[in-house]
Amino acid sequence: MTQTSHPSDKALVPFVSVDHMMQLIHRIGLEQMLRELAGYIEDDFRRWELFDKTPRVASHSAEGVIELMPTSDGEVYGFKYVNGHPKNMKEGLQTVTAFGLLANVDNGYPVLLSEMTILTALRTAATSAMVAKHLAPKGARTMAMIGNGAQSEFQSLAMKAICGIDTVRLWDIDSKATAKCAANLAGHGLRVVPCTSAEQAIEGAQILTTCTADKQCATILSDNMVGPGVHINAIGGDCPGKTELAPGILSRAGVFVEYPPQTRIEGEIQQMPEDFPVTEIWEVITGRKPGRRNAEQITLFDSVGFATEDFSALRYVRDKVKGTGLSHMLDLLADPDDPRDLFGMVQRAAPAEM
Known about the structure:
Layout: E1 12-16, H1 18-28, H2 30-46, E2 57-60, E3 65-72, E4 76-84, E5 98-104, E6 110-115, H3 117-135, E7 142-146, H4 152-163, E8 167-171, H5 175-185, E9 191-194, H6 198-201, E10 207-210, E11 217-221, E12 231-234, E13 243-245, H7 247-252, E14 253-257, H8 260-266, E15 279-280, H9 281-285, E16 298-302, H10 307-321, E17 328-331, H11 342-348
Parallel strand pairs: 1-6, 7-8, 7-10, 8-9, 10-12, 11-13, 12-16, 14-15, 14-16
Antiparallel strand pairs: 1-17, 2-3, 3-4, 4-5, 5-6
């Protein structure tokens, strides 16, 4: 028999599993959760100057990338572990998986551990729609969704819930992905139009979302495909060498980014000179700089995902799971009665003589 004591409260950290995350979504409602999550993300952009900011720490390989995304507002620290492996889809695996953690800055003790594969899809969609609320042309009702993989339904429903779109035009190089997305969106209050080309998908669309997974310098939208007055939500680029837009589009657009030092490495603007002008989205949200200047302007959100957005998402989940039972308490931290006697705690756990 092993001599152990019950873990202290400080040793136990709430863990939100995949199952609990799915239950939370259904309890709140997907569109309501996207709206609330967008509010948390926008609130944290409003206090942007409080946050530690650094480009994500990336480990690249021939097959993909594994990254850590840390930040802190001075009181709470957070990070996300996330990968991006485009080949995984062919092997029946997720292209992106993730988990995240929040900790108290004053003592360093973690206070939440959560799945973030689903949560990343939610926060990415919520961020896209929150930014589109500030930049898209007034009265936008149609979005082209180019790339119909794991993010596409979340993006479509976030734009509906936050920006009021009522039509989504779908295209993917894989027609099965388009059929999947169309079937999943059925009954969600959107008019869904499957298309046979990117050119067809963008016809009549005021918002163009590109979300593809190929880790290469691709041209999903060429310069002559994009007319005046649209908002482009480019979310597929997230590492060096991975782009979706022709440089000519960037030259004609007002470009908005999360954190320039990261976006210049990973975003669409990696194709442009180092002094290519951009506007940080927090400046628009706080009113320091204008967003869309006129009805004819092309606006482009060159989104690569930033750590503050994950911090906001984890903060939201921490608030929402309180009192719901939608978490497991993990015995994650060694917490001996005497903080100087970690060895003694280990010794006392030795099996007793039979």
